Amino acid sequence: MIFNDRTTPLSLLKTRRSGKPRDLIAPGPDLDQLHEMVAIASRTPDHGKLFPWRFVIVPDDARAALAAKLGEIVMAEKADAGPRDVEAAAQFATQAPALVVVLSTPVQGHKVPVWEQELSAGAACMNLLHAVHAMGFAGGWLTGWATYSDAVRDLFGKEGEKIAGFMFIGTPARELEERPRPALSEIAQIWSPSPNGG
User: Fold this and answer.
1) Going by C-beta distance under 8 Å and a sequence separation of 6 or more, which residues neighbour residue 184?
2) Domain 16-59+96-176 has CATH 3.40.50.720
3) Which residues is 103 bridged to in the sheet?
4) Who wins on pLDDT, 2 or 161?
5) What is the per-residue pLDDT for 42?
6) Could you write out the DSSP letters of every residue in 37-95?
């Protein structure tokens, strides 16, 4: 089944799905479109108006340099790393036409718990994917080893911040097919104050 209807707000929400970054090809969004996507992504729930997230656009002419950096880091961090790991890191960094790295940047010591601030960063990632879909592209949200490496984090941010995700954006090489979804009865319930109501 093909899901590409973007004619109404509800159809956008109902038809958005992730594209595998390795299958995303040109054309991708230009810099103005990426800026618009990020502006839309920032319109996310944010208790305390702390803006506990940042977006780092990795331009096309910097992707090879990122690939080289990731290769160096994987060799330094993995005792058994070899050429295949370096190649995999390069493929990770250069797949899909566009890349936005989203950072969770919680304000420590604030009355708003860090957990709520981290949830806001996740919501910003999801908003970005909605913007990507609404503008006619597909996006894939990846994590993996690079997300949890302090050395990789330091390429984009600083101590106390975390990479929430690598957001790859482009055009699907083929139509995206719908994935299995849980039945509503499996994920939603009506609360009851009775002893057996939850």
Assistant:
1) none
2) no
3) 54, 163
4) 161
5) 98
6) HHHHHT-S--TTS---EEEEEE-GGGHHHHHHHHHHHHHHH-TT--HHHHHHHHHHHH-
What pLDDT does 9 receive?
87
Say if residues 64 and 94 touch (Cβ distance below 8 Å): yes
Question: What pTM did the predictor assign?
Answer: 0.92
30, 137 contact by CB (below 8 A): no
Q: Is the Cβ–Cβ distance between 75 and 86 less than 8 Å?
A: yes
- Map out the domains of the chain as residue ranges: 16-59+96-176
d(CA 54, CA 38): 9
Structure tokens at 68: 């080289």
pLDDT above 70: percentage of residues in the chain: 95
